Amino acid sequence: MIKNKIILCISFIAVIFFLHTVVLHGEVLQKRNLDSVLAEIEKVNTAFKTLKANIVFTRTITLLESTEVSQGEMSYKKPKRLYLKFYPPKNEINVMDGKNVWVYHPSEKQVEKYVLNSSKQSSQSMSFFEFGYGESVAAAQKDYKITLLDTKVDGKKIFYLLDLLPKDPKSQYSDIRLWIEDGLWLPYKIELYESDGEVVNIIELKDVQLNKGMSDKLFVFDVPRGVEVIEPLK
190 by DSSP, 3-state: which? Predict the structure, then answer.
């Protein structure tokens, strides 16, 4: 549960990838192989500075046949700066300032604090969120076996479905799948599988805006008066 909160927070920061030829509305669209897709990701990563988007987070527990959908907004600034706000009923604010992650629950008057890059807090399991938004392809390949699963066509758009299989058997997720749009080279959907698929988390980014002006003040969390600070992993 604790790892979920950390990863969900860093969770919205993310990744990008593809192969072959497809006939679409009379046009032949050339698909890319995996190496070509990864090369495009590197190019975009070099130019990428900031991202702002609306998000939809869906968590499904198959054994309980339960699904929870949360909506919100996020802003991300390279490197490792994140502001994520969930609207009610979830009503939660996540802030990553480059050193710490703050998970604020206004209704409970409580904030959880986690330290980034701490071995106790499973930084490896967070690294895929940084892939395409700060980390290099080579860095991601150290933690994951990356393969191209499929190519999807929707109208005039092509999406590459990449599979990231964690090399660490203790990883939070047993499998990670990224949906990458050809031409944009940033993930618009991330699928996170826990317990061999018994729990599925899906993150969708909508109305994405890139490289807009963004103040660093947005990523500073000032603990409100009367709010308790706890550090669960200390």
Answer: strand
Question: Which burial class, exposed, middle or buried, applies to 71 when counting CB atoms under 10 A from its CB (0-12, 13-18, 19+)?
Answer: middle
C-beta separation of 191 from 177 below 8 A: yes
* DSSP H helical ranges for 82-190: 123-130, 137-143
Task: Show the 3-state SS of 27-80.
Answer: EEEEECCHHHHHHHHHHHHHHCCEEEEEEEEEEEECCCCEEEEEEEEEEEECCC
Peptide bond into 169 cis (omega under 30): no
CB atoms within 10 A of CB 209: 12
CA 87-80-145 angle, to 5 degrees, is 100
CA distance 114 to 5: 10
Instruction: Decide: 147 and 34 in contact? Cβ < 8 Å.
Output: yes
pLDDT digits (tens, 9 = 90+) for 128-185: 455 555 567 787 888 889 999 988 888 888 899 999 998 888 887 899 999 988 988 8
Please tell me whether residue 139 adopts helix, strand or coil conformation.
helix
C-alpha distances (whole Å) from 132 to each of 54, 84, 227 are 18, 18, 35
- Residues with Cβ < 8 Å from 29, sequence gap 6 or more? 21, 22, 23, 153, 158
Domains of the chain: 2-230 (2.50.20.10)
Residue 114's alpha-carbon distances to 14, 17, 230, in angstroms, are 19, 30, 9
User: pLDDT digits over 28-80, tens only?
Assistant: 456 688 999 888 888 887 788 898 999 999 999 998 999 999 999 999 998 88
Q: Whole-model pTM?
A: 0.76
